[in-house]
Recover the amino acids of this structure.
């Protein structure tokens, strides 16, 4: 049976459990209508392409989950509360099982953060998923990349390098103890957008970014936009047991510093606001007025990194 | 020279002339920030894929122009005033000339309607363009597909079938008098979103849609959503000289009724509001309480159409 566009939307994308009161008109018209609140509106759009952002054997559920996660992660990095999403889906063919799993992956995460799918577009072509996420934040409270100042402390959430290690494992480039398999692959396929932490950073963080291309590359954006430098104590980087027990020191550092796809937050905090941080995070360095990013190991010597981060082009 | 993502954005997408005062933060952070006004917000997203939505030899300027036009057309069909756009661009390679022309095509149209590009995403993969457009409209004034009532008059803007004829010509399936070449190809490659007309329809039209998949298919959505039927007088359909002088009666009807890509508006108006229409448009039929779409030719006999419209799947 061949399903047409409208049947596909009806069958797989209309059954979501989230129904927000600020959505006046959702899926099914020329456009969606939402009631704009008296807050600032935060918008971010991201595309995942097969073979570039996910391996060809990635499950449809994980593709859906991650496509939304990377967008919500951008909202988290601004301190925003997610509200609505739109989906532009390009498919080579209609595979009902794939569509069912894919939509479940999106809705699993959407439900967690009270996010409603309000519209989209379905197109035939090479597999690609574009999601735009819309978040809300009180006026002028969004956290930008610009704003880090000399002496601000640099923090990251959770642990770094796990997703990159998961990718190496999925590509069969490394072998690991089987007890780490599930956690590492979950970190790769189902990154957790740090929404609650982003919201708590309002009024505290001077700058923030989510780590999608690796710590060095992404912190670099904060430094550039803020016109400052930084020193990172590489031995302070928070690493998981999986990394400690599977890799050499240099391999661990490589993944933690330049591995992408973790979607943890990296943010800067003025020293006097440090005591306001009421959630788990790790201080990894500080902002300086000496330009550039200086990596330093425990003995005080510079640490030399080979690959600086993922470049899309 | 290989350009990186940030260089590409800087070089081709930061130079727009539109600078709206409601944009707090545009391109270059994790997400964009806009100041949401006290109006309803209208959102629409559309993808164009090479080989599906445009021919492989289509100019980059036209691809950019049309990618934006189809989105603005959705806003026009809701009666909204365009405000901001985001762009997710997937490219097989970095071609600076292509990017320059493409961005010029987008900005040409964006400037016409005071639309600002506020963010986006750049990805490597098969050529595809996804644009999301955001429009504004006073609360509860958006025009939906639902709302057409028995006895409402059915109107369309401009002429129908021109873009479909342009496509046949571009594909070398028909030959036409050279005096029509430019106008027909312009209709195909640079559709004009009917923004000013959409705005004038607020408070007048009971339902509206833009004609992307053909009149019969798109009017069908109004009928389904409004739970009504319609009669169309096929000899009242507004046709261009190009169609009249190049095609047979049945060929003309085929293109006007089921040819896609015109992006004209089709809307319904209660008879008592007909006098409020202060722009050029053509009455082509009326809404009935007999379900289905009934095509009728001048002699009162049913007109039989072969293909009902474009199906994406």
């Amino acid at each position: 049976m061949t399903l047409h566009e409208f049947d596909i939307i009806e069958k797989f994308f209309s059954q979501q459990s989230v129904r927000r009161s600020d959505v006046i008109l959702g899926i099914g018209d020329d456009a969606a209508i939402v009631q704009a609140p008296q807050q600032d509106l935060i918008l971010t759009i991201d595309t995942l392409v097969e073979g570039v952002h996910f391996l060809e054997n990635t499950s449809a559920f994980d593709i859906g989950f991650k496509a939304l996660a990377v967008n919500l992660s951008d909202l988290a990095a601004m301190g925003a509360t997610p509200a609505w999403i739109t989906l532009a889906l390009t498919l080579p063919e209609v595979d009902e099982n794939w569509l069912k799993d894919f939509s479940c992956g999106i809705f699993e995460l959407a439900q967690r953060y009270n996010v409603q799918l309000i519209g989209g577009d379905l197109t035939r072509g090479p597999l690609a998923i574009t999601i735009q996420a819309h978040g809300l934040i009180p006026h002028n409270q969004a956290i930008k990349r610009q704003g880090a100042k000399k002496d601000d402390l640099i923090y990251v959430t959770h642990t770094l390098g796990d997703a990159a290690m998961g990718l190496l494992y999925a590509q069969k480039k490394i072998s690991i103890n089987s007890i780490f398999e599930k956690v590492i692959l979950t970190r790769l396929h189902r990154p957790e957008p740090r929404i609650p932490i982003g919201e708590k950073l309002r009024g505290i963080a001077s700058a923030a970014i989510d780590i999608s291309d690796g710590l060095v590359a992404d912190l670099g954006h904060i430094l550039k936009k803020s016109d400052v430098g930084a020193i990172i104590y590489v031995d302070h980087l928070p690493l998981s047991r999986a990394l400690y027990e599977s890799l050499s020191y240099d391999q661990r550092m490589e993944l933690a510093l330049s591995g992408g796809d973790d979607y943890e937050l990296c943010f800067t905090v003025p020293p006097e606001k440090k005591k306001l941080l009421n959630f788990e995070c790790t201080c990894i360095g500080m902002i300086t007025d000496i330009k550039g990013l200086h990596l330093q190991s425990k003995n005080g010597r510079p640490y030399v990194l080979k690959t600086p981060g993922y470049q899309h082009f």
User: Anything to note?
Assistant: Chain B touches chain A through 74 residues (CB under 8 Å). Chain B has two domains: 5-137, 153-296. The first strand of chain B starts at residue 23 and ends at 25. Chain B has a mean pLDDT of 93.
